[in-house]
């Protein structure tokens, strides 16, 4: 009997190998990037395609506003109406003639529905007269109708002065810009750095591994960029130095995963508010903590989306307004996890959707929210 055991095991291994090959043939060569299982969880589902209250999207980009056709603009307004968006803030208004054309083409075509923020061109910092010229241009842009200033993430990471040195977010040569914004009563929406995981090793412990694999240009290699913490320290430093200016710290200051730390920053900087553009996936995985945070800081947080895609707004509405469980986020490479509804009260929803924005962005028409 014993002498037949090796043959038995050989036959068993052959059978197992055959079964494994059959399974491999059936499953194909699917990669982890393609793996997207359908949930078997049976729960109530309450998709929301229209916000409960009119809202302001304080974080949007419409680079071609200056040349947008009548038909395209009409479509934008129809889409806004369908989702109950009262006002959209175009952060990409640029400056000078481009800004004036954007305002003429969009804001005057649809009064009160579209708000335009100006941008500062940081090329040439350190050159003779650069600060004075930048301040004069921003003043002219505000007088032309810009209702805020948007600062892109290249400041603090890629911008260099005329000597080739990195321009820090809190570079003293920029102080007059922040001061002017406060003097003229406009907010500064400033995006600094990127998600902190972009600075971490691209290994199995990195939550952003898939995003960094699919978008390798988002990785911030050591030595090529200053540390995340340094950039954000500079970011908060300008708020400390310019208490008379309102700063909108974009993307929840990349602290959506640490709401205690974000709350501490809001407490430290009374002139700071924030918005939730492109980080709803952080709030949706911690609904109880998020509800507590948003209730406490309802007058310091605003609705923002970032990239404009009408269908993607539905995930924001569902996260804010329902208590649904385990529903998908719209971009797998941003977050591999599913979300849970926070179930905010009407009072908190109204603050996030429009009341906080009315206190931050000048000139919003209150009739749009009645």
Annotate the secondary structure layout:
Blueprint: H1 5-27, E1 55-60, H2 70-83, E2 85-90, H3 96-107, E3 114-116, E4 118-119, H4 130-143, E5 149-151, H5 175-183, E6 188-190, H6 209-214, H7 228-241, E7 247-249, H8 259-268, E8 272-275, H9 280-283, H10 287-296, E9 301-302, H11 310-321, H12 346-360
Parallel strand pairs: 1-2, 2-3, 4-5, 5-6, 6-7, 7-8, 8-9
Distance between the termini: 89 Å
Count all strands and give the number. Answer: 9
The portion of residues forming beta strands comes to 5-15%
What is the level 1 CATH name? Alpha Beta
Indicate the structural class. Answer: alpha/beta
Output the helix-strand order: HEHEHEEHEHEHHEHEHHEHH
Ranges where pLDDT stays below 50 over 5 or more residues in a row are none
Kindly report the CATH topology: TIM Barrel
For this entry, what is the oligomeric state of its chains?
single chain
Going by CATH, the homologous superfamily would be: Metal-dependent hydrolases
Biggest pleated sheet: 6 strands, parallel
When the domains are counted, the total is 1
Instruction: Write down the overall mean pLDDT.
Output: 93
Percent of residues in helices comes to 25-40%
Gyration radius from CA atoms, angstroms:
25 Å
Count of discrete alpha- or pi-helical segments spanning 4 or more residues: 12
Shape: globular
Concise structural overview:
This protein is α/β, with parallel strands linked by helices.
Attribute tags:
alpha/beta; single chain; 6-stranded parallel sheet; 3-stranded parallel sheet; 370 residues; 39% helix; TIM Barrel
